Amino acid sequence: MSLKIGGKIERVNGKELSYEQFVERFFEKNEPVLLTGLMDDWRACKSWVTEDGKPNLHFVSNHFGSSKVQVAECGKRESTDQKRAQMSVKEFITYWLELSNRKCSDSVNCSNKNENLLYLKDWHFVKEYPNFVAYCTPPFFVDDWLNLYLDTHKMHEDPNACQDINEISCSDYRFVYMGPKGTWTPLHADVFRSYSWSANVCGRKQWHFLSPSQCDLLFDRNMRSSVYDIFEDVSETQFPGFKKAIWLECTQEQNEVIFVPSGWYHQVHNMEDTISINHNWFNAYNLSWVWNLLMKDYCEAKEYIEDIRDICDNFEGLCQRNLAANTGMNFFDFFTFITRFAIAHLVLLYQLLQNERGFSGTGLRQAQQLITNLKSIYEVSSNMIPLDAFTEKNPYCPLEENQYFSIEIREMLTAPEFIRLCSKFNRIYRATSVGCEQGIRKSDEGMEDHLLIQPLESDLLDSEFVNALGCKISDPKRLIETINSAIKYLNAMAPSCTLFSFLNESKNVV
Ligand SMILES: O=C(O)CCC(=O)C(=O)O
């Protein structure tokens, strides 16, 4: 069955786009785009590519050969993904070189469709080689809450469950992919319903996208499993909606970056030997997508064990544990995450106000960005208030029985990892506010964390502002009260400055 193609993905010169325009056209509308002009001067584009534009496999093997990586077997399905194996980069490159030699010596250079090609995926390259600085995150994508957070904190703290998930696969979401012509990624929507960007260092990819409004068409009658490969013979009995789907398609060339918005299903094929760099992330513009997915996965986890509810001492705790194991975080992890962000944003606003009481230019844009972010946290937090997990019926933290969940504010403010988070944010919002022509400086990507630490103002802890934040936050309702009280304080601090109206505006939303 052939696919219905409704159009192509827009191609835009990234150098002619401001950060504000990107927000308006692509983040807020949740639309995909192909971007050119954003990979000039990337080290990866020189040292990982030969003069004739092919992957420099010898360089990769000689420099990074001992790394252990995940390799997908493109011809073998395992559940909703391809079967994976672990091998060293050196072993993978040896396989790839042998494959190329075999193809070259064939009289007809045709790839066997049924061949079980190997595809190196999800290599945590930046984590493993922070000093190599292979690339610089394009400026539109630096406001990345997921990776910034994982650079300083763990997403899930439960010592009894999913520890290996944290340590290996969840250390960050910055990846390198590489594979021969014919390798591919099955149909999926991204982890946490995050955004992703993917940059072709060399090679070409063919992408097929389906908008979130049509995603139901990909599922079976029970809405449980979705189509795996859009080019196989998809059973109409099993997936009755599939043939109605209208796809967008595009070919991504070398040195082009694609933006994949939240919740868009996509399938990707390497049309040549390809190396790409790929990040998943979220920020204020798609935070609600992450929350909605978590809520959906929670309902499924709960339904799955409903029949043992009566014999469970801590049913809610078990649901949360299963949610963390399946999705990579649970409600408490997500709530801790947004609470840290909310407090970091309030502290940064306070410091901005202290240093610059009447905002203009960059300071004003920085403040606007912080307020936009706080609004999104506020909205998501409001949706969390009625949940069982946070009500008095179930006051237990799922980490240990009989232990109340709460976040101590002063403890958070003095934790070195929190200070690092604030300082990284400060730097990023300064960069996006300056107009974002260059994004973060190339050297910053590999910079040691300690170089980035700037102490929070030394008198912060003694300030009335910290008193306004209160002592602890134990649930979403308390988080909202904290934001309200801090905003009231900030309003009073600078009643006549331009920031005042943003704070008022934010109060109206809440
Ligand atoms: O390049 C690929 O094979 C898959 C990339 C992908 O799915 C993504 O960037 O979301």
TrEMBL record:
PANTHER family: 2-OXOGLUTARATE AND IRON-DEPENDENT OXYGENASE JMJD4, ARGININE DEMETHYLASE AND LYSYL-HYDROXYLASE JMJD. It comes from the Eukaryota. Pfam families: Cupin_8 (PF13621). It comes from Aristolochia fimbriata. GO terms for biological process: positive regulation of translational termination. Belongs to the JARID1 histone demethylase family. This is JmjC domain-containing protein. One of its GO terms (molecular function) is sequence-specific DNA binding. One of its GO terms (cellular component) is cytoplasm. SUPFAM superfamilies: Clavaminate synthase-like (SSF51197). InterPro entries: Cupin_8 (IPR041667), JmjC_dom (IPR003347), JMJD6_ArgDemeth/LysHydrox (IPR050910). Gene3D superfamilies: Cupin. Residues 127-298 form the JmjC domain. PROSITE patterns: JMJC.
